[in-house]
Design brief:
The structure is a single chain. This protein is α/β, with parallel strands linked by helices. It folds into two domains: 13-326, Thiamin diphosphate (ThDP)-binding fold, Pyr/PP domains (Rossmann fold, 3-Layer(aba) Sandwich), CATH 3.40.50.970; 332-357, no CATH class. The chain contains 13 helices and eight strands. The chain has helices at residues 35-60, 74-83, 97-102, 107-114, 138-152, 171-183, 202-205, 230-245, 275-281, 286-296, 302-324, 333-336, 344-356, and strands spanning 13-14, 89-91, 159-164, 187-193, 196-197, 200-201, 222-226, 251-256. Strand 7, helix 8 and strand 8 form a beta-alpha-beta unit. The protein is globular, with a radius of gyration of 21 Å.
Length: 357
């Protein structure tokens, strides 16, 4: 029978599905992940990858600004995203387009944001996600505050907060963990440890043997998980969110994954990352891992694979088309959302701009 994760002051790298697509016989597949759900996870992960490939192409042709690819980190975001309930909130950093889309944010909004259109941060009512947050670490404070607000309102919901390994060196991260621990906030903080804080490797970024162990300084559980294993990522995140909703407090999860692309399109990882390291991680590809398992279970074959790829490519094309169909943004929007009441000097600037439009 699948074993439930026990949250206590003990860290081990939880892995259910090995890089070769084999399930750990002691842990087993989480009981609520049937073949249909696993196939849906695979479809989403394939979509993430094709979406990112398209976004990179759009950036290189001048149709997007700087873009941060999540390629290599699909399982972390898909597993965590599938563990969410509708009333939970996602609190992203800047590489979380995958989990945001799983939780309802249209891909067209993601493309609009990275194309310089702030309307990419405006989501429909009922989509519980904060906007993309580029300042490193600040979103953790927003997320814990959001979690506390839900606790005060006695909502059966939790906040799922994302940060990178480099972001754990920011003061905001420590303040957020401390506050969450002291006030028992219904928050789950996921560190996507992709081994690189831009050009700074993990071993130069932090001397701790794990990032999950930082949790113990705040009196909260810390768990390390194979972030390229979508099954383990789902189980650990699900159990942590359940725990948070029951009022048992926050959890810190370190997801061990890898950034296969540059930090962003403004970066060139070949200048600092050893090529042999990249080669070492290719066989651990989260998409290949789940595909191998599904094929071994006779859930996926070449015909279905081709059909899924065709569906996903059409899905990506629609998101691009929806972004392209957006009207041009109104320059006056720059002024309208800064203050509850626009001060006189900004009203004067608005009037001057309007005359010149």
């Amino acid at each position: 029978m699948p074993r439930k994760v026990v949250f206590k002051e003990q860290i081990h790298n939880i892995q259910i599905l090995s890089p070769k697509g084999k399930v750990d016989s002691k842990l087993g597949v989480p009981k609520d992940l049937n073949h249909d759900k696993l196939l849906d996870m695979y479809r989403w992960m394939l979509f993430f990858r094709r979406f990112d490939r398209k976004a990179l192409a759009l950036q290189r042709t001048g149709r997007l600004g700087t873009y941060p690819s999540l390629i290599g980190q699909e399982a972390t975001q898909c597993g965590a995203g599938f563990a969410l309930k509708k009333d939970d909130w996602v609190v992203p950093s800047f590489r979380e387009q995958g989990v945001m889309m799983v939780h309802g944010v249209p891909g067209s909004k993601i493309l609009a944001y990275w194309g310089g259109d702030e309307r990419g941060s405006e989501f429909e009512e009922g989509i519980n996600s904060l906007p993309i947050c580029v300042p490193v670490g600040s979103q953790t404070l927003h997320g814990v505050g959001l979690a506390m607000a839900m606790a005060y309102q006695k909502k059966d919901a939790a906040a799922l907060i994302f940060i990178g390994d480099g972001g754990t060196s920011e003061g905001d991260f420590h303040e957020a963990c401390n506050f969450a621990g002291v006030y028992n906030a219904p928050a789950v903080i996921i560190i996507q440890n992709n081994h690189w804080a831009i050009s700074v490797p993990r071993h130069h970024q932090n001397k701790a043997s794990t990032l999950a162990q930082k949790a113990f300084g705040y009196g909260i559980p810390g768990v390390q998980v194979d972030g390229n294993d979508v099954m383990a990522m789902y189980q650990v995140t699900r159990d942590a969110l359940d725990r948070a909703r029951r009022g048992e407090g926050p959890t810190l999860i370190e997801a061990i994954t890898y950034r296969m692309e540059d930090h962003t399109t403004a970066d060139d990882a070949s200048k600092y990352r050893p090529p042999e390291e990249l080669e070492e991680w290719k066989p651990k590809d989260p998409l290949l891992r789940l595909e191998t398992y599904l094929r071994s279970q006779k859930v996926l074959d070449d015909a279905l694979q081709a059909k899924l790829e065709e569906e996903v490519d059409a899905w990506v094309a629609k998101e691009v088309a929806d972004r392209d169909a957006m009207s041009k943004p109104d320059p006056l929007e720059t002024f309208r959302h800064l203050y509850e009441e626009i001060p006189l000097h900004l009203l004067e600037q608005m009037a001057e701009m309007q005359e010149n439009l």
